[in-house]
Design a protein that fits this description.
disordered N terminus, mainly alpha, DNA-binding transcription factor activity (chains A, B), Tet_transcr_reg_TetR-rel_C_sf (chains A, B), transcription cis-regulatory region binding (chains A, B), about 210 residues, homodimer, HTH_TetR (chains A, B), 2 domains, Tetracycline Repressor, domain 2, 11 helices, Arc Repressor Mutant, subunit A, DNA-binding (chains A, B)
């Protein structure tokens, strides 16, 4: 995984904090409420600032953008924009493998297992949560990755990739399906890499 | 889809009912409680009969087996054993496509959408629910399908297939990821069929 990913996680929230930690927490609370009630797409940094009773410049001071703020409300330990940039950068012929490798680098550390299970469960708990995840994944994650290849039909391609990655989270971390729960990251990359590559870049393998 | 699948759904619970509908409901209640507390593997039809205060022969009268009783407690509209038998029967070179086709035949009818969303959400809601799903899928569904091919490493193969099918349910029915939510069943079979075939039979596609 690129050092940028780790740097991003470490750098969030650093620097001068004119409003203090209470202000930052108020922004996160307002954002959580806005994402849950309006969804991801209709939430704006300006509206969140207003709800939190702070100047919009303060929101930009603490968070790189809406995706980073959303990640904060969901206790995601990295800045999604930086992770996605890392996946997209580099050889198009290795995109599928790189997506799986990068995903595992973010979520495999033992201290993050609990966080991803909580995230997965809460994302499935209600229509509001499903909507947030749908809009966020579509706009910030799989939409960007699929569009980066220039291949036709990026929306379906991104959605197919999303289905396999959501399934990986559910099967490995939440349900812990035997065989997948204890597979090594290298095995997962070997088996899932070509499938993601097929979904995102190459198209379906034809029956021989 | 095979007519057997529909027949199975229609025939469950038919015939003479010596104990009456209350007895049948008592068995289902006892089963639901047993699966939730002991998990799928450690629940037995004999123990469920005892909990329900009925003769074990009555459980066998109403339900073909543990899988059918589990399906009933989860409001699954078909007998899993019959669906799996249909998937396994037939050309090994088409197994992946047949799995996707059969799955969609069972779950695509509009009146079943709500049921599968409820099933998916409840399966993700707690550790007990995850354990039930894990044991049931491993023993009755993907374990059987993967073992039917005779290919090496059936547990990992079945688990990979499970991850994509769980992801399909979550992405299409629960999260409704754009692109996948509105894809036609034929498109899904075209894209997912070869992936399931690869997981279950052919092994990973090597990078060229």
């Amino acid at each position: 995984m690129s050092p940028r990913v780790e740097d991003g996680a470490a750098q969030r929230g650093r620097g001068r904090r004119p409003g203090g930690p209470d202000t930052r927490a108020a922004i996160v609370d307002a954002a959580r409420s806005s994402f849950a009630t309006k969804g991801y797409d209709k939430s704006s940094l300006r509206g969140i600032a207003r709800d939190a009773g702070v100047d919009p410049a303060l929101v930009h001071h603490y968070f790189e953008g809406k995706a980073a703020l959303f990640a904060e409300t969901m206790a995601v330990p990295v800045n999604p924009a930086e992770v996605i940039a890392h996946v997209i950068a580099g050889d198009r012929d290795r995109l599928g493998w790189r997506l799986v490798e990068t995903f595992l680098a973010v979520w495999e550390p033992p201290e993050r297992r609990e966080a991803i299970v909580a995230l997965a469960r809460s994302s499935m708990s209600s229509e509001e949560a499903a909507r947030m995840l749908r809009e966020f994944l579509g706009r910030e994650v799989f939409g960007r990755i699929a569009a980066s290849t220039g291949a036709p039909d990026p929306q379906l391609r991104g959605a197919l990739a999303a289905s396999q990655m959501i399934g990986l989270v559910m099967a490995r971390y939440v349900v812990r399906v035997p065989g997948l729960a204890e597979a090594s990251p290298a095995d997962l990359v070997e088996h899932l890499g070509p499938v993601l590559q097929g979904y995102l870049v190459d198209g379906p393998r034809r029956q021989e």
